[in-house]
Amino acid sequence: MPFLPDAVINDLKDLLGPKGWSTDLDVLGPHNSEARGKFTGHAELVIFPATTAEVAKAVAICAKHDITIVPQGGNTGRCGGAVASNKQVLLNLKRMNRVIEIDERDFTATVEAGAILQTIQDACAERDFLFPLSLGSEGSCQIGGNLATNAGGLNVIRYGNARDLCLGLEVVLPDGSIWNGLSKLRKDNTGYDLRDLFIGAEGTLGIITKATIKLFAQPQHIATAWIAVPSPECAIDLLALARRHSGDAISAFELLSDFAHTVAVTYLPNIKRPLATKTNWHVLIELSSSRPNDDLQTLLVDLLEKAVEIGIATDATIAQSDTQRKNLWAIREGIPEAQGFEGGSIKHDVSVPVSNVPDLLERGMAAAQALIPGIRPCPFGHVGDGNIHFNFTQPVVMEKAAFLRRWESLNSVIHDIVTDLGGSISAEHGIGQLKRDELAHYASDEKMKLLRAIKTAIDPDGRLNPGKVV
Ligand code: FAD
Fold first, then answer.
1. Which of 39, 51, 78 should be mutated for ligand 1, with most atoms under 8 A from CB?
2. Contact status, residue 379 vs residue 257, Cβ threshold 8 Å
3. What is the predicted pLDDT for the residue at 3?
4. Residue 408's domain is classified under what CATH number?
5. 133, 137, 146, 253: which to mutate for ligand 1, most atoms within 8 A of CB?
6. Which of 92, 118, 133 is the last residue of a domain?
7. How far is residue 376's CA from residue 368's CA, in Å, rounded to a whole number?
8. Which end of the chain is more exposed for a tag (fewer CB within 10 A), N or C?
9. What is the pLDDT of residues 134-150, one digit of tens each?
10. Of 158, 295, 168, 310, which is closest to residue 229 (Cα–Cα)?
């Protein structure tokens, strides 16, 4: 017996036509599954509108029948934000996947929300532009999902996160009306910034249907190095040195614990260990420049010589080809998959001021060890943004299920330290349902009051993605 009333199903079917909906369990399967297996969707109807007008009418139909909607992009989110129950309609944007315009004079692209991130990157590259948002999931996540979660990724240190890369949005509001905020303006101080409200709202305030995004000149030169560093403290010193030395040409600066590096080089196929030197910490740095005559390789060699001379690096290798560069990135990007081969893992996506990263790592690893003796820390991440994926692998002798039952107690320990260091319990993955209660616990009363007031003002009947974020 379906939980959705026949009337709403029939109205939506009539609106969207045969390509615009499915109740087929095989079709629903991937839309109901969640990557980390922490949540399971139970949607019995997924709809695939093809235009903004169809999204708006579908939202109005659901409002009329008092049915709530869960927006879904590529379903790569980490916090259960795109998971729907059998009483809700799952609205997936995948048919709205066009790159509508690339504007060569304004350096902008206007895209539909369901466009896959990599498709946008490729379309821009074909016209000799860079769209710098880059995530491990870029082959399947959608730009609407990226904006709804304010995704970060690898190049934030240079280009900012999804919010920084967005100029304008078109959004379907909870009553089915359309706010056209598409804009190519870099400056617009006409009142509260509505665009910024919808970015990072995780589908709780409106359904993003189009976006205008910023483009940049393609880099002409890229130089990438793998560096052995004695400690996270040295990594932070190296970051500061590299910033000054390169005139802020750094486009990525990643820190990896040796455990994270070792699981990647052990379990991933066709990966080469970058350095023979044994070290507890590794840095992956990338410099890029769109100036034709820059010599980044020489710049990087000078930087590394200086770093070794003052003792903040012990060894390094510079990629001499695109294949070598890809090998270095494959290590970094393969860690989450490789970590799975060592058993259960408990994860934290946190940020602190860059200078507090060493403190966070030292205190966090000690506290985790005290809570679960034998736990194996696997921290890595975008240290140039102060964002650590503070992951932990189960002790060798512990049952996986017993370890995973400690998820919440370990979260509390780590998040208390993060908060004490002036950090955030969600650096780039968002809140969804995974961290909703923790947000309420760690945020100030004033912040929660404002968040709830915004939700109530824009979605007074709680029609969009209820139970997520606030
Ligand atoms: P979904 O997962 O479908 O949805 C996420 C949230 O956004 C949900 O709350 C959903 O309701 C809402 N939503 C989706 N589309 C819309 C829309 N059009 N309008 C309104 N709301 C919408 N994240 C990072 O930030 N940095 C990383 O480096 C990173 N690396 C990753 C690597 C891997 C291998 C994987 C699997 C994930 C990674 N992620 C990363 C997480 C994830 O890819 C991002 O959060 C991504 O932005 C989600 O996009 P999506 O299209 O898959 O959204």
1. 78
2. yes
3. 84
4. 3.30.70.2740
5. 137
6. 92
7. 9
8. N
9. 998 999 999 999 999 99
10. 310
